[in-house]
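Researcher: Let's try something more involved. This one mixes different molecule types, so please make sure each is placed in the same coordinate frame as the others.
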Amino acid sequence: MQKEDLKIAVIRIEGTNCEEETVMAFRNLGVFSEAVHLKQFYSDMIRDSEQRSLTDYNCIVFPGGFSAGDYVRAGAVFSARIKSVLRDDLRDFINSGYPVLGICNGFQILAELGALPGFDEDKPVGKQEMALGINDSNRFECRPSLLKHENRGKCVFTKALEKEIVMFPVAHAEGKVIFPAGKEEDYIDRLRKNDQIVFRYVDAGGNYAGYPWNPNGSIYNIAGLCNVRGNVLGLMPHPERVFFDYYRKNEIGDGRTIFESVIEYLLSL
Amino acid sequence: MFSKVNVPFELYEIKILDADDGRLLKISQELGLALSLDEMRRIQDYFHKKGRNPYDIEIQSIAQAWSEHCCYKSSKYYLKKYLFGISADYVISAIEEDAGVAEFDEEYAYVVALESHNHPSAIEPYGGAATGIGGILRDVLCMGAQPIALVDPLFFGNPDTSEDEIPAGTKHPLYLLSGVVSGIRDYGNRVGIPTVSGLLFFDESYLTNCIVNVGCVGIARKNRIIHSRAGNAGDIFILAGGLTGRDGIHGVTFASAELDEKSEELRSAVQLGNPIIKEPIIHACLEIVEKELLTGMKDLGGGGLSCVVGEMALSAGFGAEVHLEKVLLKEENMAPWEIWVSESQERMMVTVEPKHVDEVLYIFQKWDVPATIIGSVTAEKTLRVFHHGYKIYEMDIEFVTSGVEYCRQYASLKETVDETDSTAPPESYEEALLEILKHPNVASKEWVIRQYDHEVRASTFLRPLQGRLNLEGHGDASIIKPTISSKGLAITVAVNPWLIKKNPYWGTASAFDELVRNLTAVNSTPHSFADCLNFGNPEKEKRMGEFVDCVEALGWMARGMKIPCLSGNVSFYNETPYGSIAPTPTLLGIGIIEDIKNAITSDFKKRRNAIVLVGETRKEFGGSVYSRIFRMNGKVPRTSPEKLKNYSNTLLESFREFDVKSCHDLSEGGLAVALAEMCIASGMGARINLSEMKDETYTKLFSESNTRWLTEVSERELEDYISFFKSRNLTASSIGNTGGDVLEFTDGKFSFEIPLEEAEKAWRTGLTRFTGW
Amino acid sequence: MIADVYIYLKEGVADPEGEATKKALRLLGFKNVKKVSSRKVFRIEVDARNREEAEREISGMCEKLLANPVIQKYTIQWVE
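Model: All components are placed in one shared frame. Result:
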């Protein structure tokens, strides 16, 4: 695939609010990207020129924010709407190996969809197997987080990541990774065996640590996970916010590689 | 007094033509109009000329338009006299509209607005604060601008107030704090605009009247700025956004009277916000602006439809015709006057040429934003309102909307302030410093700051917390990079009510000094400001005196510095039978930094660097933290625009000439606190020697003299750096070095030290010991 | 028909909202508070021929949107 053929959609509904910076991250790398309202995929109230299909795109992103206000549960309404209007399209998209990224609220959506951890490869959109619960601090918190990259090469969004530890900020109230009670160890074993763990929270010394370094109390310090195949990534921290350097000393921020990696992957298809 | 009109809905004729004074006042009271006798008489005269009685909707509409909140009747005279008209060639629109506009670069302009939301927040802190954010976002949006940052200065009663000191009908300051912060958090975070700056201040005078100010900054393409006026006769009014209900009826008349115990019952005057309607409105409006489909836009705030239609028509020199039955309602059976003055949230009014109406309606529909045509702009300067075909309102727009203006009597406090110095050294310097660091007005505000998303939109380049990851300290200003260029906007807020309470004139001058200090500390050039003037009851001469002193000082400083006031808001009646608030002229400052890479933060960068104090220290303790804790009297810090300009320009020049590693302004708690904050943010101590300075040790450490900063430079550059200031006849003193793990102070033979860890603990837990963490 | 749908956390799932509220109540002097757990209630009005049909409908809503089965359970209480 050629760079000029790539098309990336950042999917929005009311309340998603990180779509513009996510679109800009791709555009800054010279790739076509646009924010697309979920309605544009199905509503007949939308003019032809603005109607879209998932097959128009090579990669989709569920951005951060508070989709539908997160009023029932973070990400629940957005994912229920996707299940009702895009279930089969999204299943085909994922099963064809196209990459899907969920950042923050997007991770919550992927978890609600059952796309993560996605142990059942045939059913990437189905039953929930994990939840992102309320932070142990019981509060929304905006703070920097340090992430150790632990993926051994499966995740298409971190293949080009050379640094062992990166800094992406977090900003959420519901980001605590929870697996079904009693199955935690089994899940973690499977995730490790499948090379599905992508990022884990660490402290300034690179050690797995508790609050505030693990800002929400996630089990096993998990910050980001991919599916079995490696083409779906969900993470609570925001790589698009550090596309440029956090400290402004040079141009390149830690988050940039996430976007570069997936472009590289798409070009190799 | 009233008689029902024979129409198929609720409409009353108000019998004022033959009413005597007593009856006029009674009408004002019973209808909740908050109009004075003089004002009622003017209305009576007007309708005498028309030869008929007004309908309820007409008189309600006048009450809205003439409220303090809408027409600034008490403040306008003095604002014009002292503050307005400071011009700069980059000002695009100042004062006249919902938000001020100034040039950012060739292509873009930035937009600023600052407003109070005090009364609603005192009654229902969560909803009140949230709708404050909603309102200020609309003020910026209606200029055609994308909101890019929020600020929120907050003022409450003392957090350690015991339950039995709380007057009936008042809520505990911690309850209010937690409600207000949650409201701002849940609204600001959901709508996706970063909250990057603020203030949290405690004083007993806010116990019965908390102050909640909200500010917003936006960015717009210069050629897409939309004005808050109707386009041309024949244009169509489209009302978009949330539905109209009974919520928030009489919000502005409520904001224009003192709160009392009964205010609890006034909850209906507090509106409910919905960020998830607001967020698509922002997108829809900006899409319509981008496609150049609008001729005018204004948000619905105080006074609802009644104010927005009148103001848009009047400022364009036209009239309007509105059909109320077209307005989409939340609840049935609303009387027409209720529809007309309702302050339901999340509504915008736009005017559109007829040929663009379909396109505009389609865009709103696409974003799921309800929108409907409610009327049109007319050539004649009259406003007519119809309901189901019946004409229920016909008045001259100028009579209603131009409002009233008073030149109220005031008693200046300038000559009467007692500033006799009664200060003395502390018994223990160690304890004094720790006591100051843990004072909630000084201590870390991390508990608040982290609850707000200060990075959404990914354009925050200098954050409110600066320094070591997760162990940051306070910065002086935040910097937003609004466009793809490397130019940035520095944003800060300033006011120290303790200084102003003590001496309104010099306290306000000090607030302006602090505003400039904050902006220059991060290496930005001060560019403009907005003010939100919170005061007590203007009908009392002393309160009015505080107001006039403040405005005069503000005008003097701003004019001398040539920094224009872009936008403002006045909130009077922040007063209850228990007392008035400390005068609180909150300032929001904007600075420009040509390249954000040159921004300077407040944390020390390297051990064994030199620490330099820029500026002059005097014995100025009036209203200082030191004097408040140890109950002493003193002189409020002085300043002058000439001196401030000289120092701030030279400091900025020094940032270009030298490699300045960090900089922090000196404010509450003076040198000792500024230094401690720089140390805490970096995790390194400092060794300070004050012998070079004159005055007593406690003055050097704790005096709050204006126009001072601490900077960090390498030892190698130190000598040149100091002479750089001296050659311009300005004071800069080398006072020590960074490094170690203690704060060590020496002055001649006297010395003391505090382990950094202990100082840090005092500072970090000063607020959370009350709020929990 | 009107039902109150209670969504609550499964046994063993941490409940920071409940814990924080408990702490706050104790700080206010309510020393006898033993446990606080958070619940979310939705009042839902549906058109249905009978209670069974309504119950099926509401259960469907819970499974599709209102509860996440990994951490949450629900109960339905009929108001009318």
